[in-house]
Amino acid sequence: MVEFFQTLHWGAVFQIILIDILLGGDNAVVIALACRNLEPKQRMQGILWGTAGAIILRVLLIAFALTLLGIPFLKIVGALLLLWIGIKLLIPDEDEHGNISGGSSVLSAVKTILIADFVMSLDNVIAIAGAAQATHLDHQIYYVIFGLIVSVPIIIWGSTLVLKLIDRFPLVVTFGAALLGWIAGGMLVTDVFVVDQFGPTTTTFKIAAEVIGAILVVAVGKWFASRKRASRNTTHGSV
Predict the structure, then answer these.
(1) Contacts of the segment 36-40: beta carbons below 8 A, 24+ positions apart
(2) Are 83 and 39 in contact (CB under 8 A)?
(3) Could you tell me which residues are beta bridge partners of residue 98?
């Protein structure tokens, strides 16, 4: 045991924990937003299933994540998915005929979480694998597994915290949706096809794309939401 700790690459451990805190927060926001309309007793189910899905996806992505990121248009498709998920989160999904059943609500939330997590976990896995490359070749897989294990409590705790903030400050939903748009904008301009066509993405251009993505999600989401509310009010008024 002492020998193990002596050979431990503490720099890699620190980097992996920092990556989990920074990137795991994105997953926590997605899970919290997807679960916000569930009953309190169902929220933990959604969080746990969503977290389990996020971890399973990361495990599956580890083996071929580097290859996936080399596929043209993959990040573009992922960015479009995140944009749609962000917009959809801003559109009220309750209707006038009562609530959706508990089981289908949890299933719907978990489905949204899995789609978003699949897209967002790519960068997380790549970052952890990159940090692990500084270690001995025979030990790299253990550092990657360590990163996945550490991410579990971070995502669960983060999701619970964000849900509490959403209950007190509904505006957090808008910020969460904007975050997805921000991530989507960055993914879009770093896709292999875009880089091949226009050259390496500069920091300024990437930030501009992230800002545009955030604004686009909020603007389109709010527009759809206002149209849905107007349509509902018109329907109620004609009854």
Answers:
(1) 36/163, 36/166, 36/173, 37/93, 37/94, 37/105, 37/109, 38/102, 38/105, 38/106, 38/109, 39/102, 39/105
(2) no
(3) 95
Listed by start position, the domains of the chain span 9-229
The tokens for 212 are 């545009």
Q: Which residue type sits at 37?
A: N
**pTM exceeds 0.70:** no
Count of Cβ atoms closer than 10 Å to residue 164 Cβ: 12
Q: Which residue is associated with the tokens 């909020």?
A: 218
Query: How far apart, in whole angstroms, are the C-alpha atoms of residue 100 and residue 103?
Result: 8
Q: What is the pLDDT of residues 166-224, one digit of tens each?
A: 778 878 888 888 888 888 888 889 888 988 888 888 889 989 999 999 999 999 999 99
Cα 30 from chain centroid (whole Å) = 5
Q: How many CB atoms lie within 10 A of CB 49?
A: 18
Q: pLDDT digits over 48-82, tens only?
A: 887 787 777 777 776 665 566 667 887 888 788 88
- Say how far residue 203 (Cα) sits from the centre of its chain: 22
Residue tagged 């045991």 (tokens): 1
Q: Which of 75, 89, 77 is nearest to 33 (CA)?
A: 89
Q: Are 186 and 210 contacting, i.e. CB atoms less than 8 angstroms apart?
A: yes
Give me 103's structure tokens.
């089981």
**Is 227 strand, coil or helix?**
helix
The pair of three-digit structure tokens given for residue 187, joined into one six-digit string = 């993914």
- CA dist 10 and 135 (Å) reads 10
